[in-house]
């Protein structure tokens, strides 16, 4: 544990130091290059705004209206039948849509059931094992101006589904 | 497709609010959602500026080329459309590394850069290319070595072993990454067969 927290504490500073030393040795004008690269960041952040506003308003409306809760109740019986605990179903559904909401749900589940319970471990694994597909899609494609997404969303969501299934199976085998 | 999903989510929400009597919440959600999105983007500026600046140094110093040379066999198999030595490879790899170490905020700028290079490879068109779908699939099923946030939450709630989920998470993410590659290949196969 201490090793892992030490690694995560050191990795970014070490990486920065390494890049700066390496760049200096290779005679790169480091500060000027940094500024030049950084300028792109501002353009990027601003160009993402409309994409994210559109997506997040739709998601907020969907959640606040109660439609999301209703949808979850609707598919709950089917999922319970194949052995997926009802408590983690909302988390599994919200995970690809909203990262912050998923993090909130994971905290709630861990607080309610305890971090070392089956549900707590499952929620932890689910949270850590996939990314917010909608967000990644919106930001990456929005920033570079891809309008026709093709199969990207389908592929991303199916991969999430595979990740959830794997998380449930692995946690059941290891801790169940 | 994204157009339909977008309209569908919003409309269902509006209709539901009408039936459920949650119109007040929805009104609030519209403006809060928009505000949250802008706050998020503003917050991203600092991260984007810093990491893109750092990465520009790494790129000029030839570090990205070194990295892509190291993993060339793997990457060229995953992305057959990306020519060897193309800058896209360096960015794809550094994005994967950042995800691997749970550096979410460093991963985003690199991912966007990778997308930019892939778009250039695709002739600058606004349609998605095969490599972009593959990159996105691998990215969203990101293989994680250390899920830092989750460990932090578990510590907050006094877990006896906060890091015991590192193993299961790694196995689950590896599985979902492999699944992502297969799903991506399947859809590619279907597309090309259709013509």
UniProtKB/TrEMBL annotation, chain A:
TM regions (residue ranges): 7-25, 45-62, 155-175
Key words of the record: Membrane, Transmembrane, Transmembrane helix
A Pfam family annotated for this UniProt entry: Gate
| All residue ranges annotated as the Nucleoside transporter/FeoB GTPase Gate domain in the record | 46-147
Q: What Gene Ontology terms describe where this protein resides (cellular component)?
A: plasma membrane
Supply the PANTHER family for this chain.
INNER MEMBRANE PROTEIN YJIG (PTHR35793:SF2)
Name of the featured protein: Spore maturation protein B
TrEMBL record, chain B:
- Where the record annotates domain Nucleoside transporter/FeoB GTPase Gate, the positions are 42-152
Q: Does the keyword S-adenosyl-L-methionine apply?
A: no
Record keywords: Membrane, Transmembrane, Transmembrane helix
Coiled-coil stretches noted in the UniProt entry, renumbered to this chain? none
Which branch of life, at top level? Bacteria
Sequence intervals crossing the membrane: 6-26, 38-58, 88-112, 133-153, 165-187
Q: Can you say what this protein is called?
A: Spore maturation protein A
- Which organism was this protein described from? Mesobacillus foraminis
Organism taxonomic ancestry:
Bacteria, Bacillati, Bacillota, Bacilli, Bacillales
């Amino acid at each position: 544990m201490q090793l892992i927290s030490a690694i995560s504490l050191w990795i970014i500073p070490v990486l920065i130091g390494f890049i700066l030393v390496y760049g200096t040795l290779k005679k790169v004008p480091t500060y000027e290059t940094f500024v030049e690269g950084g300028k792109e960041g501002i353009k990027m952040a601003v160009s993402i705004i409309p994409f994210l506003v559109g997506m997040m308003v739709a998601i907020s409306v969907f959640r606040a209206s109660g439609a999301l809760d209703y949808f979850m109740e609707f598919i709950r019986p089917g999922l319970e039948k194949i052995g997926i605990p009802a408590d983690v179903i909302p988390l599994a559904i919200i995970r690809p849509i909203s990262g912050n909401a998923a993090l909130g749900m994971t905290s709630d589940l861990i607080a309610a059931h305890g971090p070392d319970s089956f549900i707590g471990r499952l929620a932890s694994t689910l949270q850590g094992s996939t990314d917010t597909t909608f967000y990644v899609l919106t930001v990456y494609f929005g920033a570079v101006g891809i309008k026709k997404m093709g199969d990207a969303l389908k592929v991303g969501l199916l991969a999430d589904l595979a990740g959830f299934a794997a998380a449930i199976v692995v946690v059941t085998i290891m801790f169940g | 497709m994204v157009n339909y999903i977008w309209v569908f989510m919003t409309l269902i929400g509006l209709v539901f609010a009408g039936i459920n009597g949650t119109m007040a919440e929805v009104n609030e959600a519209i403006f809060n959602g928009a505000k949250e999105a802008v706050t998020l983007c503003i917050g991203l500026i600092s991260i984007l500026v810093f990491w893109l600046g750092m990465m520009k140094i790494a790129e000029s110093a030839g570090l990205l080329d070194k990295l892509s040379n190291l993993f060339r066999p793997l990457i060229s198999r995953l992305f057959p459309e990306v020519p060897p030595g193309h800058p896209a490879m360096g960015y794809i790899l550094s994005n994967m590394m950042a995800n691997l170490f749970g550096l979410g905020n460093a991963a985003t700028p690199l991912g966007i850069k990778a997308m930019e290079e892939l778009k250039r490879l695709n002739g600058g068109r606004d349609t998605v290319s095969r490599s972009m779908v593959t990159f996105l699939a691998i990215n969203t099923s990101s293989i994680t070595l250390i899920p830092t946030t989750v460990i932090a939450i578990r510590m907050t709630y006094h877990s006896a072993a906060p890091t015991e989920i590192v193993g299961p998470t790694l196995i689950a993410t590896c599985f979902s990454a492999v699944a992502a590659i297969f799903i991506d290949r399947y859809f590619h196969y279907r597309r090309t067969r259709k013509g």
